[in-house]
Specification:
alpha/beta, 16% strand, seven-stranded parallel sheet, 29% helix, 9 strands
């Protein structure tokens, strides 16, 4: 049965070094990296370490389930491994007490619909996790500069999946909330339900990965005090009173 001492954040990322955290913080580790380069030198685990540390800073006392998927440079080498990792998470979620998933990864696409992915196993397992109150948090993507001339709005896969809590990055230097120039974004579409869920000021490692880590940590904290809340209820509490950065997309208030 799940340990009730505190929330559990599942971080799907590069390798995470247990030595970088207090003893007992990482309660389970699994490797879906396959033939990706092993953790090796400390920099190979840096992205995962920083994402995990940022999420923990937003939810002190939380523990981690570490799912290694990406290589040391932070790239997903084989997309089918992501589906296998999420299937493992879904099987173990109850036993491990997982409350939120932070998968700070994205491809280099700029999409306005998740239509081609509706029948995918990944989409189905994320939807099932959401039905059980477990949010999957993913970054909207960092390729806005590359795509904005052709189309100012769009998101990367897999954040484009409508069941995902998709996160854009705010400009950390701006006095009032504004999307960062590199952050992809999409106003929610009534015909598909696809759109960026919210913007947040990024923690380490920066960019939309760091913004996703902040959101995941805060969702974990909310779930801890509202253990039966749905994902929609947690998002409502998270963004209550927040200003909209773009039409229908709230900005997570800074602490």
């Amino acid at each position: 049965m799940a340990d009730i001492r505190g929330p559990v954040i599942c971080v799907v990322d590069t390798a995470i070094e247990a030595a970088a955290f207090s003893p007992g913080t990482i309660i389970e580790s699994v490797d879906f990296g396959g033939d990706c380069p092993p953790a090796g030198p400390p920099q190979a685990a840096m992205h995962g370490n920083l994402v995990a540390a940022t999420a923990l800073a937003e939810c002190p006392g939380a523990r981690l389930v570490a799912v290694r998927l990406m290589d040391g440079a932070g790239w997903l080498q084989q997309e089918e491994r992501l589906e296998a990792a999420f299937e493992w998470i879904a099987r173990r979620a109850d036993d491990l007490g997982i409350t939120v998933i932070c998968a700070a990864l994205a491809d280099m696409s700029h999409l306005r619909t998740d239509g081609p992915f509706r029948d995918s196993g990944l989409c189905q397992v994320i939807a099932e996790l959401r039905l059980h109150g477990i949010a999957t948090v993913m970054p909207a993507g960092n390729w806005q500069a590359r795509f904005r001339a052709a189309n100012p709005e769009g998101m990367a896969w897999p954040a484009i999946l409508r069941e995902v809590v998709s996160v854009g990055a705010l400009d950390p230097e701006a006095e009032s909330p504004a999307p960062h120039r590199y952050s992809q974004r999409l106003r929610r579409r009534s015909d598909t339900g696809c759109g960026t869920t919210l913007f947040a000021r990024p923690g380490l490692p920066g960019d939309t990965s760091g913004a996703s880590a902040v959101v995941a940590g805060r969702i974990a904290a909310i779930r801890h005090i509202m253990p039966t809340a749905t994902v929609a209820q947690m998002l409502f509490r998270l963004t209550s009173g927040a200003d909209s950065v773009m039409e229908g997309i709230p900005a997570l208030p800074s602490r």
